Structures are given as C-alpha cells and as structure tokens.
Structure prediction request, 339 residues.
Amino acid sequence: MNERYSRQILFPGIGQEGQERLLASRVLLVGCGALGASHAEMLARAGVGKLRIVDRDFVEYTNLQRQTLFKESDAQDRVPKAAAAKQRIAEINSEIEVEAIVADVNNSNVESLIDNCDVVIDGSDNFQVRYLVNDACLKHDRPWIYGAAVSGYGTTMTVIPGESPCLRCIFEEMPDAGSSPTCDTAGVIMPIISSISAVQVAEALKLLTGQRGEMHHSLMQIDVWRNEWRKIKLAEPNQDCVACRKRKFEFLDAESQEFAAVLCGRNAVQVAPPRPVKLDLEELADRLCYTSAVNYNEYLVRFPIDVYEMTVFVDGRAIVKGTDDISVARSLYAKYIGT
Ligand SMILES: [Zn+2]
Prediction:
C-alpha cells in the first residue's frame, strides 16, 4: 500500500493516518457522466476504499470527448456508465471496492443510496436530483458536495448539515424546467469538468481525512473560457430555510416529484415538470436546432434523438416516443430540456 500511495502520504495534508482514513471510507457518487467519471477516477486512484456509483445512462460516443473513464467499445456496446466505470476502476486500482448501481435516483431510493456513505458527491445533470440529495443528506446528517458544469463555466459548493448553508439556503426554489442550458444543448468543454471535479474531490479528501478547516467554505464559480474564478463566501445557514432549518423535506415527498408515466400501448413515456412552466418554444427550438432536426409550432416542439422522438409542449410536458422505460425518458428530458 505504501508504494502505491507514497506520494500522497508524503503530502502533509494526507499523511499515513489520512491514507488509512481514506481506505476505510465510503463515498456515494451520484451520476457517472463527465463530473462523476472524473470523481470516480480521482477517488479510486487516491485509495478511497469503497465507491458506490449510481447512474441511469449508458455510454454514448458524444460522451468520449470528456468522460475520461470510458472508451469506444463502451459506446459501441452501450454499456451502462456505472458498470463501465466499475470495470475500468478495477484496472486502475484493484484494491478498492466498487458498487455499480444502474438506476434513476429518485425519492424512493435516495435515502438507501446515501446509507453508510461518509460523503456524497454530486455528478448529476439536473436540479431535480440535487434538491433530492440535499433533502436526504440534511435528513441523515451527511455532507454532500454540489457541482455543475456546462459550456465553459461551472459552480461548486460543499454542504455540511448543521454547519454550512444548504442548497436551498442559496437557491431557495429549483429553477423551472427548460430555463437553464444543458451540456446537450449548449455544449461543454473538458477543462471545466476537470476544474469543478478537482475542487469537489479535494473537498471530499479534506472531509474524509477530518480537515474541515481547510475547506473553501464558499460558492465557487469558475469560467475557464473567460478566465474568471470567483469565491462567494458563505454566511450562516438561512434562518428561514425550509430544508435545513424547518426540516421540511419537500423533495423527498412523492408529490413534489417530476412525474413520469408510461403511455400504455404507445411505446412512449410522458414526463412532466414538478410544477407547471410556460416554455418559450421558439427559444427552445433555437437551442435544439444545433443538435437535431427540429419541428415546431406555437403548441409544441418535436425533434428526434437517436432512436427516440421527443415532443415538448408549452407547459413543459414532454412525450418521449420509442421507449417504455421511465428512466430513459427522464434522462433525455434532463439532457435536452433541463430540470
Ligand atoms: Zn438550508
């Protein structure tokens, strides 16, 4: 062990004791896309003893430009990302244990997913999951590290229940569906993935080795294209916060969930946002036209995605044709509409 981790043990911030603590730790990675794959690789190389990786997608060719754990054969065989990550990590560090879970993170499983984990790292691609993770981690007193990246910019913040503001202290309401750019509509470059994931993993290493004094205690925003690095110092938790102060976990409550249902006999799934929105269909069509052949009128936008077809209505509802799998439909919705 000492040879493999010798350079990390030499680093005064980790040392022999820190290394032993890492080996005895368990981390949940929520999502194994670009950020998640990067978290997984760094934590595996650092010797974090147990990684639980949950992701609902399979590897696609469009991922290979930035999702470092995956290779062409994974895309060719459409291997689920969690499984492909487990396989690759076994080649990188066979001494650690990886639990690969191919699933959609939702309010029925999020609490059991964080169970026994020392830290939760966000590598998801949507706010629905982040608000859910925020609720579950507050309820079970688990630190979690928010991270998001799109285009050339990204944001990260660490939430320590009872000590620091939570996601809802900072962003009280979840952004409306369809209101934010996504990597599948606005694009993304790998340097921002590397930057945000690096800050997240450094925070995780500090947490796992018990060095909270070294953490950045801020909402950190990075734009690698415009050369802007900003740290907004975090104050105390918001006294009126619904989640961390009043302990009302609205996203764990089934009724606040995004609704998805199989449309019987139609090989289609309907996805609806958690609250009604009024989409600007022309703007949505504009955003999508770079990646797809889009049809739109004042009522709907329709476009093909691989073997599927999505039709989006002005109230934010979408029908995904070509599947009866709810997690496939939710994943496409998060990627192309954004939640
Ligand atoms: Zn809060």
